[in-house]
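Sample 3 of the quickstart, ligand iron/sulfur cluster:
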Amino acid sequence: MSDGLFDQFKTWYEKRHDYARAWKQKTGGQVAATLCTYTPEELLIAADMLPVRVLGSHETQNVTEPHIFGMFCPFCRDSLAQGLLGRYDYAEGVTLTQSCMQYRQTFASWRDHVPTVKWDYYLPMPNEVQSQFAKRAHYAEVKKFRAFLEGVIGKPIADGRIDEAIEVINENRRLLKELFDYRKQTDPKATGLEALYASLTAQFIDKREHNEQLKKVLAALPGRQMNRDEGVRLMTIGSENDDCAFMAMIESVGCTIVIDDQCSGTRYFWNEAKPGGDPIQAIADRYCDRPACPTKDYPVHTRFDHVLSLAKEYNARAAIFLQQKFCDPHEADYPDLKQHLEDNGIPTLFLEFDISNPLGPLRVRVEAFLETLSEEELF
Ligand code: SF4
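Result:
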């Protein structure tokens, strides 16, 4: 497609550091580097800050070895490298909400070794979100985070400001969902790569501006002509994935990615906070209730049925696991989730991701997988 409809998202993605610097200059606000999608962005926005989710650059690097193990996941290493290389030198703060142990080490090393950090905050969050005590415990932690941020900006954050931030983020979630809904159709009006640009940029662009851009795109989508064959409809499953070159490669070999279960996609925005009462409770509940990351999905694996229902709802013919090498939480889920999908008629392919990925060999594997699907259809 070359109608330019998603170009703004692509430009934001590629020039995300320039955007954040310009935002600071324009608003005088602080930037908070966030290390997980469990971060309650609502509070940062209510504090007039710009939450910027840290992403890797997919370039080889040699700066993390003294700080974290080489067998930590590539996303952790690439993210830390970005801090150590000064790519986020505009961010006053860095914050992590507890998800996996590997990311916690990235946070600790960032806090200790990135010289531009002025404040840092580790937000504990129960991993057993299914416990009857989880929401109460998380409520207390979100409240402490609010008090911490009030100390950083030197003034109270009123409930009304938090309600406003909840509404802005909820609108962003609704608009992204509306965009993703178009992908249920035959010959979807957005490719997987375009949808990824939209959901990724929501994680570091000012939400109000992002909402306006989403509205423009949504207004144009009904009349959009897609001059491409949808081919095989695929789902992607995994943790963080912003390897856009890889996504473009998949969609160039006779496929369309129609849905995902990834924190760069649906897991980030799928559910809304429910405003109307105590805004801190609304935030705490929302993050406990969101589609779970494997680090927070026990004793019951709620995500297995959620992933399957997304595959069915978006009419995915097959699924590809995009596994960050050494990611224990996703690896532990993989055998049973694969079985669950295959038992229910969704064939799967497993690919392992590193900081940079060799597109040629991965293309061969995807093409071989597509061939097995077409052979299945002959019988
Ligand atoms: S990819 Fe896995 S190991 Fe890496 S930060 Fe995410 S959950 Fe943790």
